[in-house]
Amino acid sequence: MNCQEALEKLWQYLDRELDGESSVQLQRHLQHCRECFSKAEFECRLRALLRRSCGCDQAPPELRERLSRLLRMF
After folding, report:
1. pLDDT at 25 over 90
2. How far apart are the first and last CA of the chain?
3. What is the pTM of this model?
4. Which domain holds residue 17?
5. Which of 4, 17, 29, 40 could form a disulfide with 12 if both were Cys (CB 3.0 to 4.6 A apart)?
6. What is the total count of domains within the chain?
């Protein structure tokens, strides 16, 4: 799995929506790619912060879209 594929599947991975094999491939990629790992860690921390601050499991659609655009810029 390359970085582009990993980032395209990152949100599904974090939401636990990937099948087993894709999840394992992405985990392997994150173990070996510091840049993608950093992006995944950022997303995890941001989601945790949002859950604590708004008491919800998902960010509002507008925020998710803005964050998605920002992540694609990396």
Report:
1. yes
2. 18
3. 0.65
4. 3-73
5. 17
6. 1
